[in-house]
Amino acid sequence: MSLPDWWYGIVGLNPWVAILYTLVVTHVTIVSVTVYLHRFSAHRALELHPSLQHFFRFWLWLTTGMVTVEWTAIHRKHHATTETEEDPHSPRIHGLRAILFRGVEFYRAGVTADTIDRYGKGTPEDWLERNVYSRFLFTGIVIVAVADIVLFGSIGIVVFGVQMLWIPFFAAGVINGVGHFWGYRNFECPDAATNIVPWGILIGGEELHNNHHTYPNSAKLSVRPWEFDLGWFWIRCFQSLGLAKPLYTGPVVERVNGKNQIDMDTTWGVLNDRFEVMARYAEEVVGPLVEEEYRRADRATRQMLKRAKSILCREEMLIKEVERQRIARIVDNIPVLATIYEMRIELQAVWSKRGGNGEELLIAFREWCSTAEATGIQALREFVEELKSYSVPRLAAATF
Length: 400
Prior knowledge:
The chain is mainly alpha-helical. It folds into two domains: about 5-245, no CATH class; about 255-390, no CATH class. The protein is about 65% helix and about 5% strand. The protein has 20 helices and six strands. The strands form three sheets. A two-stranded antiparallel sheet has the order 1-4. A two-stranded parallel sheet has the order 2-3. Strands 5-6 form a two-stranded antiparallel ribbon. Helix 11 links the parallel strand 2 and strand 3 (about 230). Helix 9 (about 140-150) crosses helix 10, helix 18 (about 335-350) runs antiparallel to helix 19 and helix 19 packs antiparallel against helix 20 (about 380-390). The longest helix is centred in the first third of the chain and has 28 residues, at about 15-40. The model is unreliable at about 395-400 (pLDDT under 50).
């Protein structure tokens, strides 16, 4: 190939073809990460046909140089140690800027023999993994670089650069950084995970990080009607071809019309759906009562009640000192809000008994419901009535 030929490449200097090519190959990489590395390897949320597993392994070796056992181990450790000093990539510990722009450094620093041994079990150990993918980490990347330059000439250098930066920036940086720092939360899971945007398209659904940390073993990351998980779309496509089988998509419970007794099925159903139950508590109990108090309050009290619903329902570890002081003022001055705040804390304490015997959990849950009804607060009484309708399906099957 002559110098002019190299400059123009096989395709020629056509930026639109280069852009389309870049979008396609980076999207395949994103799908490989979210479906294979994340949902399959790290969490076993679905089964994948061996041929599809091999394709994803090959593609990731070709385009990223990532090793399945390393990525899996780091991610499992992240879930086990979220927002602590042991977390491999917490912006709450290391700072957002550090994780956003140096996420790969934190990833590499976390790959230790101890981490691999403890969190890397169940990952591929076949001949290809030992002798190709783990041994020649950068060979695939070199092949991609040559292919990009041969196809697009000088533009291929830019194409290759985008491919190499895509996962380090969006996955290691944006998801691990912004996804624990900024966004909205459907659920008050016990860490700082957020949903960055409700439409998981650019990063294959990983944008719905709060949903994922709430239900880490779910193959589907969207939970609200307005949310979209592109990774789940691909899983459904693979499923239609017999190449994938989702194993879990969130709590399986049912609501029985007319049920008004709290039995063991009620207790287990509420426990299984506890994050959604607490989200509804915020919307159906705390929200309306805060609004009611705001309408009747004077100017000074209204100032105190701004964003009160949010802080009264926030995960304990995320409450700042200034917010604790506001909560103290609210509960000291407004008895009804003090009651529903205390009842929320007590309901969360019920979940801590799930490690004991079922009878202990049932007694604790019944006592909470009885106390809630005895407050005389209508919103709480209606909330308890809804909880009584919970049950556990006799045939618990994943619904898609």
